[in-house]
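Hi there,

I know you've been waiting on this one. I reran it after we fixed the sequence typo, so this is the corrected version. Both the input and the resulting structure follow.
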Amino acid sequence: MTETVEGGCQCGRVRYTVEIEDHDAYLCHCRMCQKATGGVAAAFKNVNKADVEWQTDPDWYESSPIARRPFCSQCGTPLGFAFPDSENIDLTVGSFDDPSGLKPTHHFGAESIHEAWLDTSDLKRKRTDEYEPLVKRWKEKVGKLPD
């Protein structure tokens, strides 16, 4: 059963809707994705390009001779990865308005996995609304924490 979901960049300039068939996603650990996102891995949802409707076209970065990446040039949000000759595109999980239903099913680019970052369940956790310097900054600027 297909489901229509929405997403976009941090500033809201680039928005999309996409039909998804399932909630399967994956983590790419290749060095290009690490550098493109600035993270230890990129979380992606693979979808058919024809199922993505861009309300505002993203900017595109030719990240290698064989691939390109959609992003917002205004706020810098990475939005995905695509081979130009493929029918599919990977959308970044973090760009979905509600990524909570997506679940990782596999790792890709395993040669570059940073093992120490895979299982962080034993690390101390702190909520953003419990960090007073951050709360104070938001309240002084806009009167509340962001949604």
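Quick highlight: The beta strands are 3-8, 15-20, 24-28, 42-48, 52-54, 59-64, 67-71, 80-81, 88-92, 103-108.

Best,
R. S.
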